[in-house]
Design a protein that fits this description.
Elements (H helix, E strand, L loop, with lengths): L1 H66 L17 E3 L11 E5 L9 H7 L3 H10 L5 E6 L3 E5 L15 H9 L3 E2 L3 E2 L6 E9 L8 E8 H8 L9 E5 L5 E3 L25 H11 L4 E7 L2 E10 L4 E8 H4 L1 H69 L7 E2 L5 E2 L7
Helix pairs in contact: 1-8
Length: 414
């Protein structure tokens, strides 16, 4: 029986070792995949930041080009290029190569006639810039006198619109450099927008002009910050105050163009891990973090956008990242289970063979023992019978010795 316990212990040890080996392999593979995934996500965020930097820098350089141009000279009063600069349309058909101007409330055409005449020659600059960058939805110019000059022609802007009160205009004047607005609801109905703008240096007439170009948030998400992300995650932009500038799913909701649009601020989140990520992003750091949300854990990799002083983040569910590890785990678990089953079958077979051999050996030993005992005890029994016979006076008793000879009572061999 001790042998059976020994074999059972060996079987248990082998199965346990196989399971531990499988668990260790799963743990090591999962750890390696997670480490590689974090490094890959970080590279992805950095690459996406570099790509986005190039695009935003291109838009900024276009604004620099427009702002550095020599302002058109004031033509003779009354000369206005009607084919390119027309007032807000009143239903008539207009060429898409035309531009349109809108005057702020209280501003009359007579009061800004010379400036409008100067703006009419701007199409020669605005059209090539807009045509060269498909990411730009619209390009326009606002003046301190209350003119909004847009290309291409469009409708839908309210007559109460005043460019001088808009964020893109006031920021450009305050900055003195290229600046980007916060997300806002577009006055022409194109949804959420961000605007790149810059002040044009004042001319000899002291006029204040600001050139600007619009990029929709949908364009930002699909063509700027999300080009490398794929379908497993999404990208988002964060400004220096922790506000989400862009991410999939942000909508204008019920907000109108003349209402302030408040976006999510990650620094105010109740998720402490998310707040820590936002602080690093605001500080212009590069990194990767694992953050728990209501719908599961997610990786957030981030890198700075130096051109706009923002930060881009890449969000990917942890389950998607470690899916290969889970598949490997399942394969190892299945292989371990098959190995354990096969090992158990082999051990059971060995035990059964051992039991059969033990029984056969026991039977053989028992039979041989009986035969050997008989071989030894038979002469003694014959001798005993002879002794008893002689003791009773039967001197004629004859027995058989082990060599087949006959024995008489006197003990002589016949």
């Amino acid at each position: 029986m001790p042998h059976f316990f020994t074999m059972g212990d060996m079987s248990s040890f082998a199965l346990s070792s196989s399971g531990q080996l499988g668990d260790r392999a799963v743990h090591d593979s999962t750890t390696a995949l997670e480490t590689n995934a974090e490094a890959s996500l970080q590279r992805l965020a950095t690459d996406q930041a570099d790509i986005s930097n190039v695009v935003f820098s291109q838009v900024e350089s276009e604004m620099d080009t427009l702002s550095d141009m020599r302002l058109p000279c004031v033509p003779e009063r009354g000369v206005l290029h009607q084919q390119h600069c027309i007032p807000k349309p009143n239903g008539r058909r207009i060429s898409q190569q035309s531009s349109v101007y809108l005057l702020a409330p209280g501003v009359t055409r007579d009061s800004v006639g010379d400036e409008l005449s100067s703006l009419s020659s701007m199409n020669d600059v605005l059209i090539p810039v807009l045509s060269s960058d498909p990411r730009i939805t619209q390009i326009y110019l606002g003046t301190g006198s209350g003119i909004l000059y847009l290309h291409p022609w469009m409708t839908g802007i309210s007559s109460s619109y005043d460019p001088r009160t808009r964020d893109w205009f006031t920021r450009a004047l305050q900055s003195g450099n290229v600046t980007w607005s916060d997300p806002y609801v577009d006055a022409s109905g194109k949804g959420l927008m961000i605007t790149c703008s810059r002040q044009v240096p004042a001319d000899i007439n002291g006029r204040t002009w600001v050139v600007a170009s619009d990029v929709t948030l949908s364009t930002v998400n699909s063509q700027i910050i999300g080009t490398q992300v794929g379908s497993n995650g999404y990208a988002f932009l964060l400004d220096k105050q922790g506000n989400v500038v862009a991410r999939p799913g942000i909508t204008a909701g019920e907000n109108g163009w003349d209402e302030s649009f408040e976006t999510e601020n990650l620094l105010s989140s109740n998720n402490s891990a998310l707040v820590a990520v936002a602080r690093d992003m605001v500080a212009g750091k590069t990194g990767t973090a694992r953050v728990s949300f209501a719908d599961g854990e997610k990786y957030i990799a981030y890198a700075p956008l130096k051109s706009v002083n923002w930060s881009v983040g890449i969000v990917v569910p942890v389950d998607d990242v470690i899916a290969p590890a889970q598949q490997t785990r399942a394969q190892i678990v299945n292989a371990t289970g098959e190995t354990s089953t096969l090992l158990q079958q082999k051990m059971d077979l060995a035990r059964n063979v051992f039991v059969v051999l033990f029984i056969l050996l026991f039977i053989m030993v028992t039979v041989l023992s009986v035969l050997f005992a008989q071989l030894i005890t038979r002469p003694v029994a014959e001798l005993k019978k002879g002794s008893e016979a002689i003791g009773t006076g039967d001197l004629e008793y004859r027995g058989e010795n082990r060599n087949g000879g006959r024995v008489r009572g006197s003990g002589a061999v016949l």
